[in-house]
Design brief:
Elements lengths: L2 E6 L10 E4 L2 E2 L10 E5 L2 H6 L32 E4 L16 E8 L8 E3 L48
Antiparallel strand pairs: 1-4, 1-6, 2-3, 2-5, 6-7
Amino acid sequence: MLGAGIRFVNLPQDFRPSKFTVNGNEASFEGKQKAPTYVLFNNAHDELWGSKYTDQEKRINTWAADDTPQSPFKIDTKEYKISIEIATPNDLKAEDFNINNLDIFAITAPANVKGARTEVHIAGFSPTELGNMQYFRSGNDDSSMANNKYYLSKGNLAWAVVIPAEFA
């Protein structure tokens, strides 16, 4: 499983747009979150390949050394057009929606009866209210809730980064 979500960290918890669509379909934010959060998908393989997915191919946007790529990188991508219409902006500002206030995160394990889902966020962003914190301070993780430091290694390397353009 590999999912992806987006959290709008500068918007209030009770933010309700007059219209919210993802790829033209009506959408709604997750419940039980302090900031408006939307899960784009829960399974990247199904999302990108649909019925063409098989358990034999586990890679996404990569190729093995013995593969012959058809281009400099394997193109497994999908666009998401997120549209939010606000009837009365109240105290919202345009910068509330800029890249520094969008927490795009991966979901690497779903929630189950024993615990919350496992999330990987951009360095500095805390997990969502539905995220699991049991792996903090294990292995090479140097997260510290007391110091508001999340998703960084002991060498201060990030577990996730956002690159707002294509790269090879």
